[in-house]
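Risk register update: the risk of archive-format incompatibility is retired. Evidence:
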Amino acid sequence: MNKYKFFILMLPFLLICAGNVFAQSAGLNLTLGFPMNEFKDNVKRTGIGGSGQFLFWTPTEKYPYSFGINLGFINYGSESRIEPFNDRIPDVVVDVDRTNNLVNLHLLGQIIPPTGSIRPYLEVLVGGAYIYTETRINSRGVDEVVSSVNFDDWTLNYGGGAGIQFQLPALNNASPVISSVFIDLKVRYINGLEAQYLKEGSVSVERGRAIYDVSKSRTDLLTVNIGAVVYFNNLFSDRE
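Archived output:
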C-alpha cells in the first residue's frame, strides 16, 4: 500500500478523533459534482457523493472567521457486468462492479457571522485529490470476493465557495454538547491540477488482459452541497 492510500484510509479515523476533542462545529453534506473545462470533456456524468468538515475555531464579533478540515468523496462513474467465476466453473457467476472515484482533502477557511439565525459565508480551500478506479467481484450482490484498485493518481487543488446556513431553533441546546443546528447550502468551485485517471468505458478486456485507456487533464470541479452543521459547546469558545 503506497503512502497516499494509507493516508486516505486513516483520514476518517483521524477526523473523528479530532472532532471529538477539538471541533467547534461539524457538518455533513450530500454533494453533486459537476466536471468543468477539460475534465468535463472526458467525464460526462454528474458525480454524486458526500463531504464532512470540522472547524476548530469559534467565530466572534472581533474575529468572524474559522478554520478546519474538509473531506469529500465523489463517485463520477460506474459499470457492472455478470461473468462466470472462471473458465473451469462457468455455471457459477459473479457480479463485477467497477467505480471511478475522487476523494478531496482540504484545509478550510471560512468567514461567517458569529450570530444570527441566517448566516451567509465565504470559504477558501487548499488541498489535494486522490483519484482512483476500483473493481470489485461480489457473490451476486451479497459478499465481496475480491477487489483491486486498477489505476490511481494524486493531484493538488484549491478553490473557494459561498453558502448560507439556516438555524433550526427546535434543536438549540439539544444536548449539553450541542449549542445549535443549521441547515447548510453551499456551492464550491475547485481548481484541480493535472492528473491521470480512468472513466466509464476506459477498461477493456482482450485475450485475458485488462487494457486501460488513460485520460489526462486538469480536474476542475463545481460542487453543490446540502446538509447540516452542528455547533458545539466546546474548547476555544471564550475568546474575546
